[in-house]
Amino acid sequence: MKLAKKIYKYPIMVILASSFLVGCNSDGPEIEQPEKIYYDQAQRRMTAKNFYGAIEALEAIESRYPFGKYAEQAQVELIYAHFMNSETEASHSAAEKFIRLHPRHPNIDYAYFMKGLSSYTRDREFLTRVSDTDLSNRDISGAKESFAELTEFLTRFPDSQYVPYAKQRNVYLRNMIAKNELAAADYYLTIDAHVGAIRRANYVIENIPNSSENYRALKVLELSYEALGYSELLDDIRVVININYPDEESKQLSSQRSWSWNFLNDSKPRRSN
Question: Is residue 16 situated within a structural domain?
């Protein structure tokens, strides 16, 4: 009888021991932090310039508390965090998503502004800034998209606090686009393709008004009209040059690199109540 008790006793002890070991080895379900802890964590990380970590915390709010108190604010701050983390495509996508989901949000102007800003950031690269590299000879399709999106922002939100930055950025982009068109015109001049040069110069004058390159465009027209023997057009363009740029021949054109990214350090979206 005692032997039978011992036989049944060992299996029970084994089962209990196994259960204990499983309980000790299991991590258990992940404990979800309160929403505010994630948000405060994101703020601390952004202050410390740890934007990758801030993105993790903000995305945790978006996925775990989609209807929480900080959900909308987390979504708009993701635009900023992605941008500062040099993830411009993600920033642009986050801005488009925010605009689609929250068209009446107090920070909607910021989303439109950052959408336009993130379309073209090639001039933000360190080597480009320190070497004063001329980007007008490269593909600037992104610059054209950025110019169009910032123009939309300026039209929609003329009283936004970000308007001065958008206007300054658009001046820079407009000049770059004009210089790009005239880089092609210069090439056409070198191969005596004067009709192509005229087309590019006229595009700048007619479609990119008030750019820094207007005088240069007029000079391209002057050279091309002279080469083609268009005497009446040549006389007309010289009159225009003399009236609008009487002293231009004797002075050096000033640099147009007037845009700075430094304002971004203080351009986080507003906290909405």
Answer: no
Non-local (6+) Cβ contacts of 195 within 8 A are 224, 228
Q: Is residue 214 part of a domain?
A: yes
What's the residue count for the chain? 273
- In whole angstroms, give the CA distance from residue 117 to residue 167: 11
Q: Residue 268 falls within a domain, yes or no? A: no
Residue 79: C-alpha distances to residues 24, 74, 97 (Å): 42, 9, 10
Q: How many domains does the chain have?
A: 1
210 token code pair: 């008030």
Residue numbers of the domain that contains 185: 176-250
DSSP the chain: -HHHHHHHHHHHHHHHHHHHHHHHH---SPPPPPHHHHHHHHHHHHHTT-HHHHHHHHHHHHHH-TTSTTHHHHHHHHHHHHHHTT-HHHHHHHHHHHHHH-TT-TTHHHHHHHHHHTT--GGGSHHHHHHT--GGGS--HHHHHHHHHHHHHHHH-TT-TTHHHHHHHHHHHHHHHHHHHHHHHHHHHHTT-HHHHHHHHHHHHHHSTT-TTHHHHHHHHHHHHHHHT-HHHHHHHHHHHHHH-TTGGGSPPPP-----SGGGGG-PPPPP-
The whole model's pTM is what?
A: 0.75
109 has a pLDDT exceeding 90: yes
Tens of pLDDT, residue by residue over 256-271, are 455 677 777 767 787 7
